[in-house]
Amino acid sequence: MKFIAGEFDVAVIGAGHAGIEAGLAAARLGCKTGVFTINMDAVGNCPCNPSIGGTAKGHLVREIDALGGEMGKAADECFLQSRMLNKGKGPAVHSLRAQIDRRAYSTRMKHTLELQENLELRQAEITELEKAEDGLWLLTTRLEAQYKAKAVILATGTYLGGKIYVGDVSYESGPDGMFPSKFLPDSLEKIGMTIRRFKTGTPARVLRSSIDFTELEEQSGDDPVVPFSYDTETPGENRVKCYVSWTNENTKKVILDNISRSPMYSGRIEGVGPRYCPSIEDKIVRFSDKPRHQLFIEPCGLDTEEMYIQGMSSSLPEDVQLSFYHTIKGLENCTVMRPAYAIEYFCADPIQMNSTLEFRDFPGLYGAGQFNGSSGYEEAAAQGLVAGVNAALKIQGKDPMLLDRASSYIGTLVDDLVTKGCSDPYRMMTSRSEYRLILRQDNADTRLTPIGRKIGLITDNRWERYCAKQERMRAELERVRKTVISPSKELNDILKERNTSEVNTGIRLVDLLKRPELNYDVLETIDKTRTETDRNVLEQVEIEIKYEGYIKRQLLIIEQVRKLESKRLPADTDYSTIEGLRLEAREKLNKVRPESIGQASRISGVSPADISVLVIYLSAIKNKGTEETV
Ligand SMILES: Cc1cc2nc3c(=O)[nH]c(=O)nc-3n(C[C@H](O)[C@H](O)[C@H](O)COP(=O)(O)OP(=O)(O)OC[C@H]3O[C@@H](n4cnc5c(N)ncnc54)[C@H](O)[C@@H]3O)c2cc1C
Fold first, then answer.
1. pTM of the predicted structure, to 2 decimals
2. How confident is the model at residue 113, as a pLDDT?
3. Which of 241, 276, 571, 613 is 20 to 30 Å apart from 216, CA to CA?
């Protein structure tokens, strides 16, 4: 028999990466929050790669941390190996990636939720979601307990209608042998939500002792380790090695000989897969001219012998998997502990949401993570934070947290999702941002911590440290601008060695640092007045100096774009009645219902001419409003 078991301000369906950040943010902002999970032992589970960060994803983790989120801190505590990727390229694409202990990470996150004030963690499958007569959302569990909530955040990951595929075998399941969320999809459709099928896949895990490491290339972590979190004062040490191997002609042959047995190629999987994280059979078919594909062999934890084979996800039958894994150097005799599989699941088209991640047609209902059509732990966590914060702010009658594209990768991610929607699982990449030089991983705190503080997620202690760091950066910038280095043999020897022109008069330190061949480390012996030792302060100052011209230009563009973003379009605008708009623009605008002229300009199918019409329309309704007031 159904019974009312409790009432929350915010109920979060899901305790994956999105649900964790959503729940913590709402609770930390003072909302009574319930977080539901199908399995309590899989809170913050990493069903695919045991790692956090990576290209552009590392930026997201830094930004989550800068706003007061949890992911960076947990990754710092549970990492096994940490590396800054793309160091040979410009600072815009430097990205932190940490191999993590999968179990330790999950335990750490579960414990954080358990200890969080205002938050209750429940193992319960939500089977129904509906609007109660009193206007609150009503959630029903599989055991018929009912909860009421002012706001609900859907963060159901790959569980929603989950179905696993391995060759011609398929069955209903969540990831890692967990129950799927079988009943909720019908309930969502019943309230009028549009959902669709996506799919993703994971590679096999193999037994460490069955791998022959002797001829594999080793990959070590960085020294010193750079932490994700601005709260981590003493980063830990690298504790494991990762390994590199390659597919070869034999791997290709085994896969191509059996391609008809792939559920994707036989058409049994309907869901759309991730374009940027393809399965090995997909890579081999799509890039058939490539003789080999790289793969990484990575430990899943300190107290397990499971090794993850990154780059080799598959949904081919188990016997084919064994054959192709055994063609790879180092894996010739490997024991597969968990076979690779593909999973198909329901998710929503995020075009139904506004940039707070609230459904436009279902006030108080938010979406986050894989449920919104994205793929990846970091993308999920970022959206969880946005949804959790905004659900709390709305309940408290406060202004929403709106992050624009120029502020962050998080803003870019949300804007991409709600403006363009996604036709395959969305993954963050640095190329998705037009402001890469501003949105660096090193300056996430400068960009976002004041916003986190304003919302209420940054503690006094952290804020004091942030302000002190900003002051030290300002002082260091002033010092390098004022310091003049006299010409000397020592200086000219350095310049000669670095192939940059020598000097015969005094030169400002800032002008030396501007040279691409030089940096703080190279100039250390002649820079006698430097007292600043914080690597992050020095890194930010150096980048600001080296790229000053580009940064200024980008800031100018941002200023212009922000003017368009500030031209807000009324939520109830009926675009079909605006004369001068083309038919396609009317349809698209009515579908997306943009919040500003800026957002409207990014909708595909809305032309610059349509934007001019909208600007005229806005000023006309503004003038009309003024006339009416007069
Ligand atoms: C097989 C596989 C392969 C993947 N491959 C990749 C990859 O290559 N690259 C990549 O970036 N990402 C990959 N991912 C995706 C990655 O796992 C997700 O993007 C990430 O975990 C999403 O986080 P989330 O919080 O949205 O959902 P999840 O981490 O899936 O968490 C969902 C949560 O919702 C709960 N839940 C669901 N329904 C209900 C319900 N009805 N009631 C109560 N609780 C419910 C679950 O118990 C769980 O706690 C893969 C995932 C899987 C499963």
1. 0.95
2. 98
3. 276
Could you tell me the CATH number of the domain that includes residue 114? Answer: 3.50.50.60
Q: Which residues contact 151 (CB under 8 A, 6 or more apart)?
A: 9, 10, 11, 26, 137, 364, 365, 366, 391, 392, 394, 395
Same domain as 579, residue 541: no
Which residue's alpha carbon is at the smallest distance from atom 30 of ligand 1?
157
How high is the pLDDT of residue 630?
43
In sequence order, what are the residues at sequence separation of 6 or more whose Cβ sits closer than 8 angstroms to the Cβ of residue 356?
A: 366, 386, 387, 390, 394, 400, 401, 402
Does residue 254 contact residue 327 with C-beta atoms inside 8 Å? yes
In this prediction, the residues of the chain whose per-residue pLDDT falls under 50 are 629-630
47: helix, coil or strand?
coil
Task: Give the closest residue to 25 by CA, choosing from 378, 393, 428.
Answer: 393
In a domain, 451, yes or no: no
Count of structural domains, the chain = 3
Tens digit of each residue's pLDDT (9 = 90 or more) over 184-222: 999 999 999 999 999 999 999 999 999 999 999 999 999
Record the tokens describing residue 194, joined without a space: 């549009």
pLDDT for the residue numbered 621: 86
Kindly give the number of the ligand 1 atom that is closest to the alpha carbon of 38.
Answer: 47
| pLDDT for position 274 | 75
Pocket test for ligand 1, best of 8, 24, 41, 48 (most atoms within 8 A of CB): 48
Task: Give yes or no for residue 409 CB within 6 A of ligand 1.
Answer: no
Ligand 1 close to Cβ of residue 52 (< 6 A)? no
